[in-house]
Model the fold of this input.
Amino acid sequence: MTAREMMFCLAETFPEKLRFEAASDKRLYVRVQPEDLCRVIRYVFEERKGRLSTATGIETREGIEVMYHFSFNGCPLITTIKVTTPKYMPELDSVQDILKGAYWIEREIHDFLGVVFKGHPKLERLFKARNIPENIYPLRKDFDLKTFKEQKGDA
Amino acid sequence: MSTVIPIGPFHPLQDEPANFLLTVEGEKVINIEANLGYIHKGHELLGQSKTYDQIFIQTERICGICSISHTVCFAHAVEDLLGIQVPKRAAYIRTILGELERCHSHLLWVGLAGHFLGYNTVFMWAWKYREPVLDILEALTGNRRTASIMKVGGVRRDLNEDHFPWVLEVMSTIRGQTEMLLNAVNDDPVIHSRTKNVGVLTYEAATDWCVVGPTARASGVDTDIRRDEPYGAYEEVDWKVIVLKDGDVFAKAAVRLLEILESVKIVEQCVKQFPKGPIVTEVKHIPVGEGIGRYEAPRGEDIHYVRSNGTNMPERWKVRAPSYVNIPSFHASCIGGSISDVTITLASCDPCYSCTERMAAVVSPDSRKILYSGADLVRMGQEKTRAIARELGRPPELNLKLNL
Done:
């Protein structure tokens, strides 16, 4: 399946909901609204047999962007589903009940960017060190390592 | 009545830290929870303050075994962003080094698996066979591991073709040795009863947990990035993807052994048809954009995501190593099994955290007294093999016959 075919499939199933971004024939970027996220991911995983390679979280000017990268066995396509959530209250629906492969990555994004995944059964620390407080998120742009170390007293 | 048994924070099998909490009822495992982050190195944050050329050196430090995999994967991500192709000679160099890495990584795993089953001859022999591969890597790149040879658009240094006859010689020796190991594993009834139907990961569980690499291929999932998104020289050489159906520890071992033979085949062909030409496509500037790179590392699909803001440092660099998706599949493969099979099941997906010292303890929840150490868990696994061998009237060591 090429990026173009995938784009037609998605556009047909979710009319006027999605925005497609610049793509080569092996890479497709799709922007969805937070309320459509679970339905789109369920479609890509169950109908199109996608495999969740990983998810990436990044802080942008508009808010916190989470990207779900889907690979497909047997073809070079990677479909990336992008969703943005506001910085002051980052919340997304958990996709862990659709595919278990999201179990760790959602915990990791919660650790480092503070996105709350509603419905995740165990949204606890996975990688963040025990001496970093709960409300400090190291991958946010306002995180400053130097100030953090000075406060901790190990600069 | 259930008991919680912590394994770790240092893994009982590999010299790497992870804490597994096993909930057991008698001998049966009913739940497993992983607890990580003991050596989280913050590579992604660090990478945001490094230039693209510096990141290549940093990327190698993610994993000592897969140092070539991660650097090539990062190069793929930046090359996807730029939309460029690497020269043919550079693609061949990447393929040869990548396949040598796969050989040595799989041989290392075979040795460890032998040790956990109580066959220490396998452990010593497999590691002995691995040494010449590292010698080749040292001769070709200057270092046994961390070769520092990749860059955006190609490779930094050329390979010396004078070494190629020696490479072919070593490859044919490794083929004989791997076939011998394969026959020994296939013929031994003790290994069969110890690994068949142990730690089974079904096809459904494998797709649900999104596992990759040999772990997925042993469960019948036909996935291999070398074929799905061909890079390097894989389109120009003859090889096949190894897929087995059973999903147990035996199938995972067989997939890895058969893959060594495929790697040997790929290296031999690449060396024979090694092309002439430039080794790098010059890159002046990295524009604004995003790119995703994939690579089939020895343990499975490696994926890097890079977002550039037009400066010489990336805005965001995301790394996902194959063990990240393979380790959570323990939820599916360990539960319902016996505690003496946990060690080999945990080892069967070749988990890779990063390297540090070994220590493990099993603590009684009531008295906080140490019941078993990591060495005891390994010993329990080894004793089980010996008991089966006695029952079947077999010698305590594996029957290895080398025909050279």
User: Anything to note?
Assistant: Chain B has two domains: 3-39+325-392, 43-192+275-323. Residues 354-370 of chain B have pLDDT under 50 and may be disordered. Residues 92 and 270 of chain B are 7 Å apart (CA to CA). The beta strands of chain B are 3-7, 19-25, 28-35, 150-151, 154-155, 289-297, 300-308, 314-320, 361-363, 370-373.
